[in-house]
Amino acid sequence: MYLFEKELRYLRVQDIDYIELTVDDLEQATRFYHEVLDLSIIYEGNTKMIFQLGKQKLVCRTPENEDLTADHPTVGSTTFSILAKDSLHTIQQHLANYFIEIIKGPVKSTLKNKTAVSLYINDPAGNLIEIREYEK
């Protein structure tokens, strides 16, 4: 056996811990994620806010934050999907109350025999958020 021939092992990834968004206005992002999407704040700083999103965390940071980050953090460049607990009809009404524009939707899709309906919105920094409800 050669030195570089080792027993192959697979990396066992368990879950996502957090998603990080670069935002230009932390106060606006906080109002949006805390008030509109009703996420709990678990950390509050001058250049970073952390929200609880299900079992995961959503981190909003400004470009000025000096923590370790991506090579080229860009405001409004992230797309992610969240699962709805309420009906999409209720969510549409809620978003309208906050004057949040629905970019697209409702859109129906199927993945592995599961049908979902989605709405698409932008946060104040321009990040795209899919709000998804799986049909029962």
UniProtKB/TrEMBL annotation:
Listed transmembrane segments: none
InterPro entries attached to this UniProt entry: Glyas_Bleomycin-R_OHBP_Dase, Glyas_Fos-R_dOase_dom, VOC_core
VOC domain ranges (all copies): 15-134
The protein's name in its UniProt record: VOC domain-containing protein
Organism per entry: Fructilactobacillus lindneri DSM 20690 = JCM 11027
UniProt lineage: Bacteria, Bacillati, Bacillota, Bacilli, Lactobacillales
